[in-house]
Amino acid sequence: MNTFEKIYEQVKRIPRGKVATYGMIAAKAGNPRWSRVVGYALHVNPSPGIIPCHRVVMKDGSLSPGFAFGGPGIQKELLQAEGVLFDGEKADMEKCLWTE
Global pTM? Predict the structure, then answer.
């Protein structure tokens, strides 16, 4: 399994209504220093309907300004439709962070 495949497998595990950070996904995929690699992998997500890249946010709950599938407005809409709570423009990390 290559690096991107490892990342995609972890992203697929994030449940509806929860978010994870780039760093969390990097660590779960095998290297906590891969945060930027996670961003690159999600930017070229081959299966947006299957790999829920919209559930990955920055460590403070901020949305990605470069969200590949329509920008941060679309990312926020997708997350809200799944029940993710927001404090302004940031995901409420206290209530919605995926902990496993």
Answer: 0.93
Of 1, 6, 21, the closest CA to residue 93 belongs to 21
In whole angstroms, give the CA distance from residue 45 to residue 40.
Answer: 9
Mean local confidence (pLDDT), 15-25? 98
For residue 38, the cross-strand partners are none
Catalytic residues: 53
Q: How far apart are CA 50 and CA 42, in angstroms?
A: 12
What's the mean pLDDT in 35-63? 94
In terms of Cα–Cα distance, which of 48, 45, 52, 57 is closest to 20? 57
Residues 6+ apart with CB under 8 A from 100: 13
